[in-house]
Protein backbone atom coordinates (compact mmCIF):
# COMPACT_ATOMS: atom_id res chain seq x y z
CA UNK A 1 0.00 0.00 0.00
CA UNK A 2 1.46 3.37 -0.92
CA UNK A 3 2.05 5.98 1.78
CA UNK A 4 -0.66 8.40 0.57
CA UNK A 5 -3.32 5.68 0.55
CA UNK A 6 -2.22 4.41 3.96
CA UNK A 7 -2.35 7.92 5.42
CA UNK A 8 -5.80 8.56 3.95
CA UNK A 9 -7.18 5.27 5.32
CA UNK A 10 -5.61 5.79 8.74
CA UNK A 11 -6.87 9.38 9.03
CA UNK A 12 -10.35 8.22 8.00
CA UNK A 13 -10.22 5.46 10.63
CA UNK A 14 -9.09 7.97 13.25
CA UNK A 15 -11.97 10.33 12.47
CA UNK A 16 -14.49 7.46 12.65
CA UNK A 17 -13.02 6.20 15.93
CA UNK A 18 -13.16 9.71 17.40
CA UNK A 19 -16.85 9.96 16.44
CA UNK A 20 -17.58 6.52 17.92
CA UNK A 21 -15.74 7.30 21.15
CA UNK A 22 -17.60 10.58 21.46
CA UNK A 23 -20.95 8.82 21.08
CA UNK A 24 -19.98 6.05 23.52
CA UNK A 25 -18.94 8.60 26.15
CA UNK A 26 -22.21 10.55 25.86
CA UNK A 27 -24.80 10.24 28.58
CA UNK A 28 -28.34 9.41 27.49
CA UNK A 29 -30.33 12.54 28.22
CA UNK A 30 -33.36 12.32 30.44
CA UNK A 31 -34.19 8.64 30.22
CA UNK A 32 -37.05 7.62 32.45
CA UNK A 33 -36.33 4.04 33.47
CA UNK A 34 -37.97 1.88 36.10
CA UNK A 35 -36.04 0.09 38.82
CA UNK A 36 -36.76 -3.16 36.99
CA UNK A 37 -34.50 -1.93 34.19
CA UNK A 38 -31.49 -1.47 36.52
CA UNK A 39 -30.03 -4.85 35.51
CA UNK A 40 -30.36 -3.99 31.83
CA UNK A 41 -28.66 -0.64 32.50
CA UNK A 42 -25.70 -2.43 34.09
CA UNK A 43 -25.44 -4.79 31.13
CA UNK A 44 -25.62 -1.86 28.72
CA UNK A 45 -22.96 -0.01 30.71
CA UNK A 46 -20.66 -3.06 30.62
CA UNK A 47 -21.15 -3.43 26.87
CA UNK A 48 -20.54 0.28 26.32
CA UNK A 49 -17.37 0.15 28.44
CA UNK A 50 -16.07 -2.82 26.42
CA UNK A 51 -16.78 -1.04 23.13
CA UNK A 52 -15.16 2.15 24.41
CA UNK A 53 -12.05 0.22 25.53
CA UNK A 54 -11.76 -1.52 22.14
CA UNK A 55 -12.21 1.76 20.23
CA UNK A 56 -9.61 3.46 22.44
CA UNK A 57 -7.09 0.65 21.84
CA UNK A 58 -7.66 0.82 18.11
CA UNK A 59 -7.32 4.62 18.18
CA UNK A 60 -3.94 4.24 19.90
CA UNK A 61 -2.86 1.75 17.21
CA UNK A 62 -3.95 4.12 14.42
CA UNK A 63 -2.03 7.03 15.98
CA UNK A 64 1.07 4.81 16.27
CA UNK A 65 0.71 3.82 12.60
CA UNK A 66 0.50 7.50 11.60
CA UNK A 67 3.72 8.14 13.59
CA UNK A 68 5.40 5.24 11.77
CA UNK A 69 4.30 6.80 8.48
CA UNK A 70 5.91 10.09 9.52
CA UNK A 71 9.08 8.33 10.72
CA UNK A 72 9.41 6.13 7.63
CA UNK A 73 8.86 2.85 9.50
CA UNK A 74 5.36 2.12 8.25
CA UNK A 75 5.05 -1.34 6.72
CA UNK A 76 7.92 -2.80 8.75
CA UNK A 77 7.34 -5.05 11.75
CA UNK A 78 8.10 -3.18 14.98
CA UNK A 79 9.54 -6.38 16.49
CA UNK A 80 11.65 -8.06 13.79
CA UNK A 81 11.89 -5.35 11.10
CA UNK A 82 10.65 -7.50 8.21
CA UNK A 83 8.07 -6.17 5.80
CA UNK A 84 4.48 -6.55 6.94
CA UNK A 85 2.62 -8.35 4.11
CA UNK A 86 0.67 -6.06 1.80
CA UNK A 87 -2.54 -8.04 2.37
CA UNK A 88 -2.24 -7.55 6.13
CA UNK A 89 -1.85 -3.80 5.69
CA UNK A 90 -4.83 -3.75 3.34
CA UNK A 91 -6.97 -5.51 5.94
CA UNK A 92 -5.51 -3.70 8.97
CA UNK A 93 -3.72 -0.50 7.98
CA UNK A 94 -2.77 0.05 11.63
CA UNK A 95 -0.94 -3.31 11.86
CA UNK A 96 2.44 -2.88 13.55
CA UNK A 97 3.69 -6.47 13.34
CA UNK A 98 4.13 -9.22 10.78
CA UNK A 99 1.86 -12.23 11.23
CA UNK A 100 4.47 -14.31 13.07
CA UNK A 101 5.36 -11.58 15.58
CA UNK A 102 1.69 -10.72 16.11
CA UNK A 103 0.96 -14.38 16.89
CA UNK A 104 3.80 -14.43 19.43
CA UNK A 105 2.55 -11.19 21.03
CA UNK A 106 -0.97 -12.57 21.34
CA UNK A 107 0.26 -15.81 22.94
CA UNK A 108 2.11 -13.78 25.59
CA UNK A 109 -1.10 -12.04 26.73
Topology (SSEs and partners):
Blueprint: H1 3-25, H2 38-71, H3 86-91, H4 99-108
List keywords for this structure.
109 residues; mainly alpha; globular
Write a structural description:
The chain is mostly helical. Helices cover 67% and strands 0% of the residues. The protein contains four helices and no strands. The radius of gyration is 18 Å and the shape is globular.
Q: Quickly give the structural class.
A: mainly alpha
Separation, N- and C-terminal Cα atoms:
29 Å
What is the makeup of the main sheet?
none
Q: What is the alpha-carbon Rg in Å?
A: 18 Å
- Strand coverage percent: under 5%
- Percentage of residues assigned to helices: 55-70%
In round numbers, the mean pLDDT is 89
User: Low-confidence spans: pLDDT under 50, at least 5 residues?
Assistant: none
Task: Please report the total strand number as a whole number.
Answer: 0
Number of H- or I-type helical stretches: 4
Q: What is the approximate shape?
A: globular
Order of helical and strand elements: HHHH
Briefly characterize the structure.
Helix content is 67%, strand content 0%.
Amino acid sequence: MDVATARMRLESMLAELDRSISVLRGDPAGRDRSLADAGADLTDADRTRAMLDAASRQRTAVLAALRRLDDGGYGRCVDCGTLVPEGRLEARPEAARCVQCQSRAERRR
